[in-house]
């Protein structure tokens, strides 16, 4: 790893840096230094104060935030700056890359104009000069056809391309410091690698210091020189990557490093398939382009797919965004219109509709990705968990319903007392447990899990994976487990199926596929995931 | 209070707190509430009959029971006119009577006026009389009650129709939505005013007729809002979870989607309300509204226009309407702000806010 840390020139220095919102201390006496030519990573779980520190350092926090402590950028005392001085620094000496490439570009302006804006503000370039420079920048971030892209609209670019445009804008004025706040979190793993490699190359080329904020230890390990681990607003540990990973000092860092999901699910006893799909496919009509145009061919979100799952077995579905994973789950759940057969035990679900289908629904349940959106904010946990029970078994007395809700909550590792509380009082991991409780209280045979862990922190992921495996062993549940995270899939699935553009390109025993992938795409996925 | 608080969801509690923090809206709500409740008892405040009276040692309740004049020594077996000086003389000779504060009802003609109508305000008629010699204050009290009642009924009716129509279109989407939207578009193209004018030519439009006709059209404004909310909500994960659970559509709509759609709808209600009052007043002003003699603010405004030499008519009508509508708009603003998540944010520590954002 090329490190310029020897002739270390401190670029950004924070000492005793604190941020508080209306009296709540969010960042507590943080001290760190970013040197020229090195990447310092701030690692921590959500809510640990990593983004707030970076935003606070360059005064991008809302008015009710109180910032104290010392901030130095090279020779400038940041505490002494006025409003105008800040505008000169941001985008000029300090570049910023945000997490969400979909929303950080203005959809109403062409790419060239957006890059040109920072050039005009800080370098006074305009017209042809700005365009030439913008084109050079697009070449630098390795975007294809820079001439055409200058006149493209943001919506015409993919997520990875937009993030490259963001990087081009951030480095447009040769900043000394680049702050990258989770720059790849919203991107697919294969794209992540390219973006991070690009960042590294640009850093070495320009001798920039990079402050890299991430929750993903795997990425940090490979792309940072030094690490700063944060937990609840405090620094737990600082040091070089090798030191921190090989010899972690604080308990929290140890837990974080050990949080990689591990273990394997128990082998299923029975092999007669519980769920079978035959030639299951989903297609969406595309709108006509004009009134008298012919209807364009339908978009095939999922091509004819056969799969089977035995009782107590987990089938992992792997693929990047847009590969049709969620469509497959919705088709199995009969939540979207599909062709082909879905057979669950003795019932052919694809032939049922209306009330007869609804009466079968307790046999297969689903857990969704977003723990914040999957629970109705207006219902207490008791109502959320018991709703399906009361509909499918209207004969149960209130005492029986209460008893079963409490038993199920205990089973997913939540205290009974939380039944009276509302979803917002729980953390992401606890909410996901509530969602699991809502699903298993109906005693389903099949549970469809659509990215249940991807919105959670690593340590919480591990707990949820353990819980799901316990439930499977105890109840002989079958899982259709969808994830883009191969580490989690390895800990959950017996068999996996790799999807790309709605097509199954590879399937087989989980460990075998991961050890010896056949298809180049699977290889690329496994490569990018850096499994240990 | 603790019991109620524990039953309300935290979001509702936060909104209540936000509404309470808005002093203008809270004061307006109180004032409007008090005015409306007072006006509900208009018969006790402004009436041409005593509330209770004692005559020859016997109790009478003229407010509730019609007594013939012969009871009090009159000659005709007709309904007693208690404002008749002869009857008043009889009552004071044989007992006593408890009168309301304003001894005139909305259609009482004051026969003992010494001045020509419309008469300016004096001790006898606090806001003067209109061009037929009726007490303006009494008419304002009754008119206020009628307007608010009309607006309440119209709003409630529109709410039911609009939410059902918008909800069905938004939740099911697709063809239902397409056809429903076209029908509402055509329906909203019908000219309401002309319909009312035509109607006025062959029936005598009363309270219920007007309410019915207005109801046919006033729900259209809500459809788009509710439809948009349902369209958004039907793809939320907890709605999909409810679907996966096997709940029938009506339960999903009622339990999961409607509570979320109600936010936009509730914000719209005060403006629907002011709209209803405004329309009723306008129709009365034009003469296509309530039958003659009914206590109506629009009719008072029309009288003010026709009697510019009697400014108390116009000023009273204007002030009543202005105060009533302003109060409603203030309440509406308070509601809108209370339901606005960004507005709440300013009053709460944002560190907590980001947690459930």
Describe, in plain words, how this protein is organized in 3D.
Chain A: It catalyses: a dipeptide(out) + ATP + H2O = a dipeptide(in) + ADP + phosphate + H(+). Chain A: One of its GO terms (molecular function) is ATP binding. The complex is a heterodimer of chains A (532) and B (357). Chain A starts with 9 loop residues before the first strand and ends with a helix. The model of chain A is unreliable at 1-6 (pLDDT under 50). In chain A, strands 6-7-8-3-9-10 form a 6-stranded mixed sheet, sandwiched between helices. Chain A folds into 3 domains: 1-93 and 177-258, Rossmann fold (3-Layer(aba) Sandwich), CATH 3.40.50; 107-172; 275-285 and 296-380 and 445-529, 3-Layer(aba) Sandwich (Rossmann fold), CATH 3.40.50. Chain A is 36% helix and 24% strand. Chain A is of the alpha/beta class and 532 residues long. The model of chain B is unreliable at 1-5 and 344-357 (pLDDT under 50). The radius of gyration of chain B is 26 Å and the shape is elongated. Chain B folds into 2 domains: 20-40 and 138-356, Orthogonal Bundle (MetI-like fold); 48-99, no CATH class. With 357 residues, chain B is mainly α. Chain B has helices at residues 2-7, 10-21, 23-40, 42-45, 85-94, 136-172, 174-188, 192-202, 207-218, 220-233, 237-245, 249-286, 297-306, 311-339, 341-347, 350-356, and strands at 52-55, 58-60, 95-98. The chains are: A alpha/beta (532), B mainly alpha (357). Chains A and B meet through helix 12, strand 16 and helix 13 of A and helix 2, helix 11, helix 12 and helix 16 of B.
């Amino acid at each position: 790893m090329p490190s310029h840390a020897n002739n270390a020139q401190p670029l950004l220095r924070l000492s005793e840096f604190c941020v508080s919102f209306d009296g709540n201390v969010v960042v507590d006496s943080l001290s760190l230094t970013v040197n020229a030519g090195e990447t310092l990573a701030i690692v921590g779980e959500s809510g640990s104060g990593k983004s707030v520190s970076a935003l606070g350092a360059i005064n991008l926090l809302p008015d009710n935030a109180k910032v104290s402590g010392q901030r130095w950028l090279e020779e400038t005392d940041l505490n002494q700056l006025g409003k105008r001085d800040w505008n000169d620094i941001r985008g000029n000496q300090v570049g910023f890359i945000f997490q969400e490439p979909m929303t950080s570009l203005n959809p109403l302006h062409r790419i060239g104009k957006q890059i040109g804006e920072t050039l005009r503000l800080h370098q006074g370039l305009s017209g042809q000069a700005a365009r030439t420079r913008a084109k050079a920048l697009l070449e630098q971030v390795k975007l294809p056809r820079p001439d055409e892209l200058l006149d493209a609209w943001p919506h015409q670019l993919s997520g990875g391309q937009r993030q490259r445009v963001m990087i081009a804008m951030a480095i447009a004025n040769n900043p000394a410091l680049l702050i990258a706040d989770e720059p790849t979190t919203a991107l697919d793993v294969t794209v992540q690698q390219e973006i991070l490699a690009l960042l590294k190359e640009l850093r070495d080329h320009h001798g920039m210091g990079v402050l890299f904020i991430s929750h993903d230890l795997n990425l940090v390990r490979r792309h940072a020189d030094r690490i700063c681990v944060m937990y609840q607003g405090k620094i737990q540990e600082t040091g070089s990557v090798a030191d921190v990973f090989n010899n972690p000092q604080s308990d929290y860092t140890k837990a974080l490093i050990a949080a990689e999901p591990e273990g394997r699910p128990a082998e299923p006893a029975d092999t007669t398939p519980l769920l079978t799909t035959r030639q299951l496919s989903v297609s969406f009509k595309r709108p006509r382009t004009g009134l008298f145009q012919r209807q364009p061919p339908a978009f095939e979100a999922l091509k004819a797919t056969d799969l089977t799952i035995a009782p107590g077995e987990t089938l992992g579905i792997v693929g990047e965004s847009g590969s049709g994973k969620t469509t497959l789950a919705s088709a199995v759940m009969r939540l979207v219109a599909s062709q082909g057969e879905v057979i669950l035990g003795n019932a052919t679900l694809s032939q049922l509709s209306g009330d007869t289908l609804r009466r079968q629904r307790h046999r297969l349940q689903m857990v969704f990705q977003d723990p914040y959106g999957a629970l109705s904010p207006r219902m207490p946990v008791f109502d959320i968990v018991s709703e399906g029970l009361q509909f499918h078994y209207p004969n149960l007395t209130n005492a029986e319903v209460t008893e079963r809700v409490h038993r199920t909550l205990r089973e997913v590792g939540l205290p009974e007392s939380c039944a009276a509380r509302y979803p917002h009082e729980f953390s992401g991991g606890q909410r996901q447990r509530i969602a699991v409780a809502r699903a298993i209280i109906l005693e389903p045979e099949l549970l469809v899990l659509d990215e249940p862990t991807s919105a959670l922190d690593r340590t919480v992921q591990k707990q949820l994976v353990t819980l799901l495996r316990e439930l499977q062993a105890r109840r002989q549940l079958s899982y259709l487990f969808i994830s883009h995270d191969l580490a989690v899939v390895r800990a959950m699935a017996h068999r996996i199926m790799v999807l790309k553009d709605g097509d199954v390109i590879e399937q087989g025993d989980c460990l075998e596929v991961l050890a010896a992938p056949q298809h180049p795409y699977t290889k690329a996925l496994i490569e990018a995931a850096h499994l240990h | 209070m603790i019991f109620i608080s524990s039953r309300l969801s935290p979001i509702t509690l936060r909104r209540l707190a936000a509404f309470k923090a808005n002093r203008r809206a809270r004061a307006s709500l109180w004032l409007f509430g008090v005015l409306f409740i007072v006006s509900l008892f208009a018969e006790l405040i402004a009436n041409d009959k005593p509330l209770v009276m004692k005559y020859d040692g016997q109790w009478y309740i003229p407010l509730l029971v019609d007594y013939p004049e012969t009871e009090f020594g009159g000659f005709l077996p007709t309904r007693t006119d208690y404002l008749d000086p002869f009857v008043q003389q009889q009552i004071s000779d044989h007992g006593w009577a408890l009168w309301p504060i304003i001894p005139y009802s909305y259609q009482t003609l004051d026969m003992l006026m010494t001045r020509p109508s419309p008469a300016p305000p004096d001790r006898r008629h606090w806001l003067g009389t209109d061009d037929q010699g009726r007490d303006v204050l009494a008419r304002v009290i009754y008119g206020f009650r009628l307007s608010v009642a009309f607006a309440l009924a119209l709003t409630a009716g529109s709410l039911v129709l609009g939410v059902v129509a918008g909800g069905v279109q938004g939740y099911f989407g697709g063809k239902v939505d397409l056809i429903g939207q076209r029908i509402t578009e055509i329906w909203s193209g019908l000219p309401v005013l002309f319909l009312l004018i035509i109607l006025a030519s062959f029936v005598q439009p009363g309270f219920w007729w007007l309410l019915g006709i207005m109801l046919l059209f006033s729900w259209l404004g809500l459809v788009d809002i509710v439809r948009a909310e349902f369209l958004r909500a039907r793809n939320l994960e907890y709605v999909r979870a409810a679907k996966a659970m096997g709940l029938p559509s009506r339960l999903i709509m009622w339990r999961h989607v409607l509570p979320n759609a109600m936010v936009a709808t509730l914000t719209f209600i005060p403006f629907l309300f002011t709209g209803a009052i405004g329309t009723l007043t306008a129709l009365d002003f034009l003469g296509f509204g309530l039958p003659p003699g009914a206590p109506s603010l629009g009719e008072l405004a029309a009288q003010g226009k026709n009697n510019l030499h009697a400014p108390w008519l116009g000023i009273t009508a204007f002030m009543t309407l202005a105060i009533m509508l302003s109060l409603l708009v203030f309440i509406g603003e308070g509601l809108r702000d209370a339901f606005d998540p960004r507005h709440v944010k300013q009053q709460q520590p944002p560190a907590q806010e980001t947690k459930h954002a």
